[in-house]
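Please fill in the sequence for the structure shown.

STRUCTURE ENCODING:
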């Protein structure tokens, strides 16, 4: 890879803005370009973030030799066609999660990326979130012994807007949207998943066509068991640890609204490994996204896919797909990427 990267952010909504903020902070490494069908927005973002150029036609992005990477910040149904065109034009791709609407679409993206010899990375911010990274380190170092139980919780109550409501553009509800983060976190903490048994519900957020709540029972390849809940349909938003991992010698868990990341070894007092972040709410969430984008740049400069490799993103999609199939059939489903 060259000493500098020409990266074009395609799609200038909220997510595109956060990606631009991250890339604009790396001026010594990144030449920023922006693309939107809205001329006024494209010009505004270019001025705001010091972009080299702005585009309103994606074909012009693909024709520009200064652009080496396409950063896709678009609705889920556009990830596949925009990525395939980028690969055909000789560009690398960073795509927002999920990789695509379906497992088959994700497989196409990975296959073409590998055929063209191009990077395909997924912007999954859990992979660079400090508390999750430190928990993963503790587990791999044997701090809790042999892990046998992983629990991941996301409880929220809100109504997704715009393209997130129809299934045609979103691909699903809570599980494939915000749930992708927590599926990936469950893999990050417990390893690859072998079997999924799931149920989905649409009880409180009926404005969407997909599910507002998904509950997954996971069997890991290691033999460990997992339990994952992802919901934007829980009135009152109960407070629970983001994750708990229990092993034969202790546990590690993260109280986002409490003490932070806790390591509790058998026979010892709980230890605060990392306090909770100083930022909260949307400010905190946006910073985790920015750090994921910065990780992509660091990796791409070395020819590596960060923060989430294509095959890792494909495994996440396989878990999500198995979850939907299980909820539809009432049967456990084997995970197959």
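FILLED IN BY: designer on duty
SEQUENCE:
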């Amino acid at each position: 890879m060259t000493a500098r990267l020409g990266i074009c952010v395609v799609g200038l909504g909220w997510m595109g803005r956060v990606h631009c903020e991250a890339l604009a902070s790396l001026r010594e490494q990144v030449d920023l370009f922006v693309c939107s069908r809205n001329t006024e927005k494209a010009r505004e973002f270019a001025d705001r973030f010091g972009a080299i150029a702005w585009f309103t036609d994606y074909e012009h992005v693909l024709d520009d030799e200064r652009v080496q990477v396409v950063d896709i910040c678009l609705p889920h149904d556009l990830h596949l066609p925009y990525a395939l065109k980028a690969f055909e034009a000789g560009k690398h791709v960073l795509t927002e999660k999920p990789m695509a609407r379906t497992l088959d679409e994700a497989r196409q993206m990975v296959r073409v990326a590998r055929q063209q010899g191009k990077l395909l990375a997924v912007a999954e911010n859990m992979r660079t979130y400090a508390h999750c990274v430190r928990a993963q380190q503790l587990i791999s170092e044997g701090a809790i012994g042999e892990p046998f139980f992983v629990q991941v919780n996301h409880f929220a109550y809100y109504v997704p807007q715009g393209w997130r409501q129809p299934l045609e553009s979103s691909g699903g509800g809570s599980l494939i949207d915000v749930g992708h983060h927590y599926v990936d976190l469950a893999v990050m903490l417990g390893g690859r998943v072998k079997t999924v048994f799931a149920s989905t519900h649409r009880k409180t957020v009926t404005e969407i066509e997909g599910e507002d709540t998904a509950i997954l029972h996971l069997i890991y390849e290691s033999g460990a068991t997992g339990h994952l809940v992802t919901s934007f349909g829980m009135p009152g938003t109960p407070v629970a640890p983001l994750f708990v991992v229990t092993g034969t010698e202790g546990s590690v868990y993260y109280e986002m609204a409490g003490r932070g990341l806790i390591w509790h070894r058998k026979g010892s007092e709980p230890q605060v490994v990392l306090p909770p972040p100083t930022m909260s709410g949307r400010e905190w969430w946006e910073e985790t996204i920015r750090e994921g984008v910065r990780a992509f740049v660091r990796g791409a400069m070395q020819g590596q896919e960060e923060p989430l490799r294509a095959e890792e993103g494909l495994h996440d999609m396989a878990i999500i797909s198995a979850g939907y199939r299980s909820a539809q059939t009432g049967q456990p489903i084997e995970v197959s990427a």
